Amino acid sequence: MSARIFAVADAFDAMTSPRPYQATRRVSQAIEEIALKTGRQFDPQVVHTFLGIPTEVLKEIHGEQKERTYGRPAARQTEMETSRRFGVPVAACG
C-alpha cells in the first residue's frame, strides 16, 4: 500500500514541479491526469482518497499560492550548461 500511495504522490510532484524535460502542469491539471489514470496506473482506493484532498490544500502542500507554470527555461538552462561543457553551440542542442 505504501508504494501505491507513493506512486500517486510522486506522479503529482513530477507533474507540478519544474523538470528540464517537460513543462510544469498546474495543480488542477495534475489532479485531472491522476484521475484519468485510475485503475490503470494508480490504485483506485488511493486515487479516491487523493481526490478527497481539497485543491487548495494540495496547492498549499506543494507550496503554491496560486497556480503557475514553468515552461522551457529549465531546459534551456540545462542545454546551456551542457553546451558549455562539451563546446557545442546551444542552437545545436535544441
Can you offer a commentary on this structure?
The structure is a single chain. With 94 residues, the protein is mainly α. The protein has one domain. The chain is built from 6 helices and no strands. The protein has helices at 2-16, 27-36, 44-51, 55-62, 73-86, 90-93. The longest helix has 15 residues, at 2-16. The radius of gyration is 17 Å and the shape is globular. It starts with a helix and ends with a helix. Residues 65-94 have low confidence and may be disordered.
What distinguishing features does this structure have?
94 residues; mainly alpha; 6 helices; 63% helix
Topology:
Layout: H1 2-16, H2 27-36, H3 44-51, H4 55-62, H5 73-86, H6 90-93
Helix pairs in contact: 1-2
Short description:
This protein has 6 helices and no strands. By secondary structure, the chain is mostly helical. α1 packs across α2.
User: Main beta sheet, described?
Assistant: none
Number of helices: 6
Shape: globular
Q: Estimate nothing, just give the exact number of structural domains.
A: 1
Percentage of β-strand residues: under 5%
What percentage of residues falls in helices of 4 or more residues? 55-70%
pLDDT averaged residue by residue: 77
The secondary-structure element order is: HHHHHH
Total E-strand runs: 0
Q: Distance N terminus to C terminus? A: 41 Å
Any low-confidence stretches, pLDDT <50, length ≥5? 65-94
Question: Structural class of the secondary structure composition?
Answer: mainly alpha
Based on the structure, what is the oligomeric state of the protein chains?
single chain
Cα-based radius of gyration, to the nearest Å: 17 Å
